[in-house]
Amino acid sequence: MAEPNSVIAFYDERVLSHQPDAKAPFPPGRMERRIRQLLSSLNKPWSYPEHAGRLTAIRHLLELEPIPGLHFECGRVATREQLGRVHTSTYLNHIFELRGKHAWLDVDTTAVSPGSIEAAEVAAGTAVAAVEAVLDDRAESAFALVRPPGHHAEPVRARGFCLFNNVAVAAAHAQAAYSCQRVLIVDWDAHHGNGTQDIFYADPDVLFFDIHRASPFYPGSGQLEDTGVGLGEGTTVNVPLPAGAGDQAYMKAFNDILVPAAEWFEPDLVLVSAGFDPHAFDLALNVSFEGFAAMTGVVRDIARRHCQGRLVFVLEGGYHLIALSRGVRAVLDVLAGGEIPKPGIAGLAEAELAADYHRQAFIADDSEEAS
What we know:
Radius of gyration: 22 Å
Largest sheet: 8 strands, parallel
Order of helices and strands: EHHEHHEEHEHEHEEHEHEHHH
Strand content: 5-15%
Shape: globular
Number of strands: 10
Number of helices: 12
């Protein structure tokens, strides 16, 4: 069993080579015309939101503000066998044919550049490496800092900036290569993890809990009533929330839904699709840095209660660089044994300090009133 609070962050610079360019020449055809029409209809120039700066911002902050006890390791390339556990051969063949090319893959603006396929292979392989680190008891928890993200990628198509479903590949590897029969996947990205849901919708051995901004917010899936099918009935748990929902709503869902669901399921491993676009800076929801830390505390406690603390985070979305890097650091700090702050109280201490400072200016004391 790994030491409590031991944590490894996996980071591989090869994921930076995924650099789609909206201005690059793409093969002619219907998709080309459709994408160009969409881009030309915007009021300002459009740049690809999922860019390499997301990862470098995280690494830069962790270098400026190191976390005691946090160790870094490099990732690796996923094998075709690992990818093929969650994606069809036809889809993989199509993706591999795009190696070294520029291309659009769908109308969700998912695109590739010459270095994208290797980056996606490394992203999925790094998620696998993070799982192996905790299952081999080298660390209690791990965080795969990867891109492109994965939770929108379906068995047969890319969507929403995602090529391979990294967290699904990692979950399937844990089941196939280790004695992990039951895997809990928690997805707290602002967008519903439609691809992860599709992959495991009929699987009774994967409990998928997804809290997200409700439809019609992209991708429009993840209804409350979507709970799985067949043998997997009841192992999909969706919590759609309105715009502006924040720490209190998230913590209520975690404590009142996720915790008892995990108690019922008894996972052998806990994975988190960690997107940081629920932060207020990303304008989708209103989760604070303290909220991310508090959610981390809940999933860490679940892992310690049910599976010897074995917990792996896989990076998903988050496009405001400050929110993303600070959110990741808040998670890693808790995993490394840092104090868990109370969620939803950002600025309260400062307001109380200011109240104490200004109080005498506006409230007369008893001696002044008596005179």
